[in-house]
Design brief:
This protein is an alpha/beta fold. It contains 6 helices and 7 strands, in the order E-H-E-H-E-E-H-E-H-E-H-E-H.
């Protein structure tokens, strides 16, 4: 039996753009996994839980605090925590800067191998979610849906919510969903298997 990997990660650096990070030759050839989602969807909390390190990623009490690209080294990958989108209480100028940061990251990234698209299972995908997902499909980027905060609902409700979310997203290809909760530990093993088995 092959022993399953125990994911560990270390923070590398934060940058306003991908180009600055790619100057680090040590990590230039590593495939990247991007974590994307709405503000307050739980990206930083998921990072800390998945890598079993409460101090790895800063978890802000106020949504919209992640404003840079945060890079983490984990085994054979570089994980990238991108700024969350859709938080209303920021200036139009700041929203525009975030949009450019994220756009440039995806448009000019030959090392991007996978997108982890986080959605709160209790919420319908909004216009920003749909815009990003349509772009993912148009560019044929490999992705996995991570439905977060599943501990807030029971098993039947989670199943129904996934069906409703799928109907709204209307995927044009087979999609893979992982239900994830940092409180009841659901989803961690499934994500490990998907990334490293």
């Amino acid at each position: 039996m092959v022993k399953r990997i125990k994911p560990r990660a270390e923070f590398i650096s934060s940058h306003e753009n991908l180009a600055d990070f790619m100057k680090k030759r040590t990590y230039k050839a590593f495939p990247q996994i991007a974590m994307v989602g709405r503000s307050n969807v739980g990206k930083s909390s998921l990072m800390n839980h998945f890598f079993q390190n409460k101090k790895l990623a800063f978890v802000a009490k106020t949504p919209g605090k992640t404003r840079l690209l945060n890079f983490y080294k984990s085994h054979t990958y570089v994980f990238v925590d991108l700024p969350g989108y859709g938080y209303a209480k920021i200036s139009r100028k700041q929203r525009s800067l975030w949009g450019k940061t994220v756009h440039d990251f995806f448009e000019n990234n030959e090392q991007l191998s996978l997108v982890l698209f986080l959605l709160d299972i209790r919420r319908d995908p909004n216009a920003d979610d749909l815009l990003f997902y349509n772009w993912l499909q148009q560019n044929n980027l490999a992705h996995i849906f991570i439905l977060t905060k599943t501990d807030k609902l029971n098993a039947y409700e989670n199943k129904k919510r996934q069906e409703q979310i799928m109907n709204i997203l209307n995927p044009k290809q087979e999609s893979f969903f992982i239900h994830y909760s940092i409180f009841n530990k659901e989803g961690r093993d499934g994500l490990i298997k998907k990334l490293w088995d």
